[in-house]
Each structure stands twice: as C-alpha cells, then as structure tokens.
Amino acid sequence: MIIRVLPQLSSAPEWIAFCRRETPYCFVEQPDCLVDFQSNHLVITLLNRQVRNGKEAIKYSIGSAQSIEPAWNFIKACQFDLGYMVQGLEQVNFEGNARDNSGFPALQGIGIRKFFAKERAVISPAVLGVLEPLKTLPEHWDLHNVCRLLANRQVLDLRHQPLAGNAADDAPASADALLLELVERPDGWRVRSMAGRICVARENGQLYSFIPQLAESRRGLSRIA
What we know:
The chain is α+β, with helices and mostly antiparallel strands. The chain is 22% helix and 25% strand. The protein has 6 helices and 10 strands. The protein has helices at 12-19, 69-77, 82-91, 125-128, 143-151, 175-184; strands at residues 5-6, 25-28, 33-38, 41-46, 58-63, 111-116, 155-162, 189-194, 197-202, 206-212. Helix 5 packs antiparallel against helix 6. It starts with a strand and ends in a 13-residue tail after the last strand. The relative contact order is 0.15.
C-alpha cells in the first residue's frame, strides 16, 4: 500500500481535505508523525525522524466512543495546527486527567490516551527518504537499489528460500516484509544478480530472490505493514 506524505497539517482546509480522503491515514513531514482517524478517534503516532521499529513509537488517541465531534473540537481548539497539538500532548501529565492539564484545551466528553504503538512495521519516512522507482537497472546492486524496487512494487516472482542447513519457512514472501527487514536490520546482507534474478541473502540463512520489473513501478513511499 502506498501512503501519502503530507508536508504539514496546519490549517482548516488541510484538515478538511485530509478527513475527506477515503482513508484518512497519512504521514506528515512536519512534525514527523503518522496521523490516522480511526472511527471517532484521532490517533497521532510520533516518529521524530528516527523511528525504525514501530514499537518504539509513542501514540496519542484523542476522541470519544459516542461521536466524532469531540475529536474534531480538539482539532479546532488547537487552531488546526498539528505541531501545536503535539507540543501540548507532550506536556500533558498522564498520571492525572489529561483534560484537566493546564494550558491544554478544556473540552467536554473527550478522552486522551498515551501509549506505545503495537505495530512493529511503522517507520518514519525521514529514515527511508523518498524511495524513487528505478528507471534503469544499475550496473552494481546494493541494498538501497533493492529497497527502491520493493517500495515501488518493481518486483516479480518474489521468493523466500532457505539456505542449505536451514528449515523451510512456510510464510509467503512479501515485498513489505523484506523491505522492513532491510531497513530495520541492514547489516549482514549481500546482493547479487544471477540468471536474471536479484538475490538478497543474509548471514543467518535468509535468502530472497526476485525478478526486477521496471515497467510495473508505482511511484511513492511504501507503507510497511
């Protein structure tokens, strides 16, 4: 899945356009966050230009089980400025009642929670950069070129094969799973081209291979999930 990266969410028109999306779920560059409207709750995941493992990320959930109105009132009370929201949330003492914290919008019927994300596969776009599709096959392959292919779905017949002496893995090969492995744990991988396939192997016995297919590129940043 390709997730849009917005430069900011700091005005009413920007929030209205975001909420009108079929899936209101986007990365935001400044501040570096993942913003998601889940039913009646606004969920903000702080990435801080460094998160490689989603379980390191702090999340805030703002809203009510009854309606979307409290979450929207929160956005309006923060002057439609995501940066202001994040600054305020980071100053809240969550040992007490977040709604009673001085300096934070006093709203009725709203709950605010702080917790760590459960999703391992959430990575700051600032870590990845913009992974542009490959236009030509490189003379020398490296992990960055492989990541560009995976992020833009420029691969065919992706296979996960055990090396000699390792048990077979029944899990289906996934471009997102491999991209996550390469980004989170880039050490120890080797890349080579062999008989029209790109082989990506690691010292622990993992071996992936695929056929590069430049004509199938879909430009954008991949959501790793």
